[in-house]
Amino acid sequence: MNSDPLYQSCNAPEESWDSKESITYLPGFRAKGSSGGQEENVTFFTSVLKEHYTLINSETKEALTWLAKLSPNKLAEMETTGLVSPIVGTSLFDSRVSRDYHKIFQAFGLMKRVEKGAMRWYYPRNLLNLTFDLESLRIALCEPLDSLRFYLSSATLVVVPSNLVDHWKTQIERHVRPGQLRVYIWGDQKKKPSAHILAWDYDVVITTFNRLSAEWGPRKRSVIMQVHWLRVMLDEGHTLGSSLTLTNKLQMAVSLTATNRWLLTGTPTPNTPNSQLSYLQPMLKFLKEEIYGQNQKSWESGILRLFEAEMEEGKSRLLQLLKRCMISARKTDLKAIPPCIKRVTFVDFSEEHAKSYNELVETVRRNILMADWNDSSHVESLLNRKQWKFRATTIKNLRLSCCVAGHIRVTDAGEDIQDTMDILAENGVDPMSQEYALIKYYLLYGGNCMRCKEWCRLPVITPCRHLLCLDCVALDSERCTFPGCGNSYEMQSPEELARPENPNPKWPVPKDLIELQPSYKQDDWNPDWQSTSSSKVTYLVRQLKKLQETNRMIGFPCENMEVMSNELNFSSNKIYLDVPLKYCRKSMNKWSQISLEKVIVFSQFLEHIHIIEQQLTIAGIQFAGMYSPMHSSNKMKSLANFQHDPNCMALLMDGSAALGLDLSFVTHVYLMEPIWDRSMEEQVISRAHRMGAARPIHVETLAMNGTIEEQMLRFLQDGDECRRLLNEEFESNDLDGTRSFRTLHDFAESNYLAHVSFVRTNSRTEKVPSSADVFI
Ligand SMILES: [Zn+2]
Ligand SMILES: [Zn+2]
């Protein structure tokens, strides 16, 4: 140690060694007479070489070989007269110019001096009986240099979705005294820090999943892989995905080295159409869970298949596994959180909107009825198990049409109906008659049902030439329901009916009726938000106006007094109108304590969001939008706006923004449609209903009366009953060895379609009872 107290700290540079003291130990050197190749010196040389890996080029290699091959006599010159620098390469070069290998030689402990234009290498001064350990250097040079140095670290790496970086930062600031934790944020854009900085200069390194993916590459050596972390944490860990398909993100997460591996998620099993458990295995793989995480086969045969087949053993193994590796904290365990008050509000359509919804219902019911009179084994029926894709699209359209009015364009209907008109002519309708023209007009453009007088876009024409809506025609499969008619259809028995489209017909069907109907070629359903008058949004605006009024009572800021506020030098340029000026300053400083009403408005449909935006703007309610396809930087701006601007009352968001945000100051959540995925709903509500919330949270789901939304809510309310029905369905279909529905989701969708009914805004006749009440 340096005898001068000024130079005794670890930070004192080596050059400040007391020149009078002899050096008895130096890495890379050995005592004369001792044997060469000492292990610690080999390690020393290896680490120097690795650290300077980027400097190793052909010239450096030549210089290192020169050094390693020196004879004992030549080596001895370094102690006395100095050894002339190696002349490497074929090109002329000035030995006084610094070369890459100089840095490595110096890192070995050798000293460089230029004397009379020539450069010489020396040992450090005052070495006491030490010599350079050439044998160790030779051994070190034989080791592969491209293996990277590994940094043992006491830091925690936290990987989060990009939109949660700020949340982690502010939470750390809020809960940890300044200076206690050194936090480094490595975002999506930032340039690469070096591995040793990450490992040694920080306690917490926060980065994003995007970064994690970007850092993975087959030949890439990411700096985050050069650190042995104390702890790696994945926030919203279920975003690893639902399969073991090797995404960059998953490969990287699994490859990280850490003593402890943590994973946080509020939704370990997002409710997807495919499987409830599929998200668990990637998470277990990340956690390196010994049995099921490391071996996909044991997971599949040990838990997944048993669980999906609803076998008790699958369930109990899953529970054991979760007990081993999971700590669960539910909201009910946290007494400090104020209650969450949920309610559902049913709203009625405007007449125009109902008409547009009914058009869609009509196509669904027409398809199902005309497929051998509600026979799900007909391949073209929406209820057929093979039609799940078509069914999913139809459901989506039906749900969307509860929020946004739209149209189905029926193109070239003229050609489609000609066959029908020809059959009618064969059966005695005079093509020149008024009746012929009327039927043709009805089939082309729609008209009012002759029985119930309701308008229908695609009426059914009976062989007895009565035009009926689907509700009326469906009342009886054997005869016309027009009052006073009662004409019997030509029935076909299941035996005669069997054909490729329906190998197993279930019941007799009215052959002549079905064959008479035109097969309309339909285009997609097109939502038209600009011209929608949405009852839900009208309701929403009314509620928000009330809340706006409450905010105004607390002392809503007003923009009229900007001039004065500048004089007062307030940080915000707005002050209260209703409050005497002397209170303003005090209140301004207390923005955070003022409990303004703040609202989340959630919708899964972009078209619906557009309507809401349009109507909020007209109503003068300030809001911020945070939904796809907005750029993430704009989403962040919106979020900041909602958080900090007291005028901005509502945040309009979709599922892409629902993950992990802390909006515990929010007081109301409006779910603009029922949400099928319970975990998605939970994610949205949890933005507001979470630790930190000081007031009860009101959650209101809006649904249209009598529509598929009402069916969905009923289904979701009673999950157990639904599963029981699904089981029955399974059992009844086991006879022919096929599973009729892939999942509960699929079953539910099929069920909605089987029971979807028209919405009547001003019933002129008694509403036809629908069989949708199966769940009540
Ligand atoms: Zn009718
Ligand atoms: Zn009739």
What does this structure look like?
Among the domains are: about 15-140, no CATH class; about 150-290, 3-Layer(aba) Sandwich (Rossmann fold), CATH 3.40.50; about 350-525, no CATH class. It has 28 helices and 27 strands. By secondary structure, the chain is of the alpha/beta class. Residues about 560-595, about 735-740 and about 765-775 have low confidence and may be disordered. The strands form nine sheets. Strands 6, 7, 8, 9, 10 and 11 form a six-stranded parallel β-sheet that branches. It has a six-stranded parallel β-sheet with strand order 12-27-26-23-25-24, with helices on both faces. Strands 2-4-3 form a three-stranded antiparallel β-sheet. It is about 40% helix and about 15% strand. The chain is elongated and about 125 Å long. The protein starts with about 30 loop residues before the first strand and ends in a 21-residue tail after the last helix.
Summary keywords:
776 residues; 6-stranded parallel β-sheet; elongated; Rossmann fold; binds zinc ion; alpha/beta
**Could you name the ranges where pLDDT drops below 50 across 5 or more consecutive residues?**
558-593, 734-738, 763-776
Mean pLDDT: 82
Q: Please indicate the percent range of residues in DSSP E strands (runs of 2 or more).
A: 5-15%
Number of helices: 28
- Helix content class: 25-40%
Structural class: alpha/beta
Oligomer state equals single chain
Described by the principal axes of the CA atoms, the overall outline is: elongated
What small molecules are bound in this structure?
zinc ion
